[in-house]
């Protein structure tokens, strides 16, 4: 909540706080070797698939300037960070080389991502994107990172 209240102030961007929190958070608890957090399982999502978000408490969506462009006309992008691949063994060990895990999407994907975020399950074909290829690509990207599963 503090991060959201600070959004837009010059002192600190809430996106930085959210990213830092996720980068240093423990991954979801799982029994066994944790393979379900790092290896996509189940069916590959297709246009006719129904998908649902998993591990919602371990994912943040943020907006920020395109980090790959160095010119002054940097477009805003959507960044999705997650803690699924964080290592329990190095949690809170003061390692400055923490790697962030996540994805980057153009701003045009915001409505579709909100649909996934706010629904218990949604059909890939119903996502608010222009083409079927964009819909499948979004679902596949999220599935590859183990953020959604086919139901």
From TrEMBL:
Q: Which UniProt keywords apply?
A: Dioxygenase, Iron, Metal-binding, Nucleus, Oxidoreductase, Phosphoprotein, Transcription, Transcription regulation
Supply the EC number(s): 1.14.11.-
User: In the record's cofactor note, how is the cofactor described as bound?
Assistant: Binds 1 Fe(2+) ion per subunit.
- Which GO cellular component term is one of those annotated? nucleus
Instruction: Extract the coiled-coil ranges from the record.
Output: none
Q: What is its main location?
A: nucleus
Q: Does the keyword Nucleus apply?
A: yes
Record-linked InterPro entries: NO66-like (IPR039994), ROXA-like_wH (IPR046799)
Enumerate the transmembrane spans. none
Q: Which residues are in the ROXA-like winged helix domain?
A: 18-114
Do the record's keywords include Metal-binding?
yes
Q: Gene3D superfamilies in the record, alphabetically?
A: 3.90.930.40
Tell me where in or outside the cell this protein is found.
Nucleus
What GO MF annotations does this protein's record show? 2-oxoglutarate-dependent dioxygenase activity; iron ion binding
Question: Which protein family is it in?
Answer: Belongs to the ROX family.
In UniProt terms, what function does this protein have? Oxygenase that can act as both a histone lysine demethylase and a ribosomal histidine hydroxylase.
This chain belongs to which protein, by name?
Bifunctional lysine-specific demethylase and histidyl-hydroxylase
Q: Which gene encodes it?
A: LOC111767495
């Amino acid at each position: 909540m503090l991060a959201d209240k600070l959004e837009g102030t010059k002192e600190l961007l809430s996106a930085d706080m959210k990213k830092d929190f996720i980068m240093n958070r423990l991954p979801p608890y799982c029994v066994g070797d944790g393979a379900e957090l790092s290896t996509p399982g189940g069916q590959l999502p297709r246009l006719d698939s129904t998908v649902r978000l998993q591990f919602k408490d371990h994912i943040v969506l943020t907006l920020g300037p395109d980090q790959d462009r160095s010119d002054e006309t940097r477009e805003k992008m959507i960044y999705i960070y997650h803690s699924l691949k964080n290592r329990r063994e190095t949690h809170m060990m003061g390692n400055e080389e923490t790697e962030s895990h996540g994805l980057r999407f153009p701003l045009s994907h915001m409505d579709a991502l909100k649909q996934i975020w706010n629904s218990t399950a949604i059909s890939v074909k119903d996502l608010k994107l222009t083409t079927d290829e964009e819909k499948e690509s979004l679902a596949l990207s999220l599935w590859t990172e183990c953020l959604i599963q086919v139901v």
